[in-house]
Amino acid sequence: MRVSQWRRRAALVASIAMALTFGSLATASAETAPAQTHTLFAARHDVPVGVVSIANECPAYVSSRLYLDVETTGGWMLTSVDVAYGADVTDIPATNSGNPKIGQFPVRIDASIPTPSTSIEIAGAWAPGQQLAVAVHANVVRVDEQGNVIERAGAWAGEIDFPGNSIASYFVDGIDECIMIDPHG
Q1: DSSP 3-state assignment of 3?
Q2: How far apart are CA 72 and CA 138, in angstroms?
Q3: Which distant-in-sequence residues (6+ apart) come within 8 Å of 66 by Cβ?
Q4: Mind listing the pLDDT tens digit for each residue in 132-143?
């Protein structure tokens, strides 16, 4: 079984587990479209270590914002998150052979201390129905009860392998039409 096939199956299981644990992440509000979720895999372990949820601002006009929430599970914590995005995977900084260049991703969040989650807001010009390729890389650690780092790993979100010879992955999501919910029923 290819790694991407395993990731898709593990992503489904992890998404169901996350929804049961934290409630549904794909909820609509008067401010954002329903969120889409993608599993965050520790690269060298190829095990789920968290989830990335992505939603767009409502109303989704030509100028809009994306909201990414990165949450870890299983005792993992974030130390940094890098994000790149574009209309196609070719818009994500990469080497000539197709391996992503994390150091050139336009968004970077560094945690001063390991944290279980972070939120990222990205301004852009997107229209409803537009597809975006999104690469999310996180450096994650596991700590013991005293706060000592006992394990480190790089992690990627997504079900699609980059074209290069690496373990990096990305996902493609569309800018959703907004579903406005009347809070009064």
Answers
A1: helix
A2: 10
A3: 54, 55, 56, 57, 85, 121, 122, 124, 126, 132
A4: 999 999 999 998
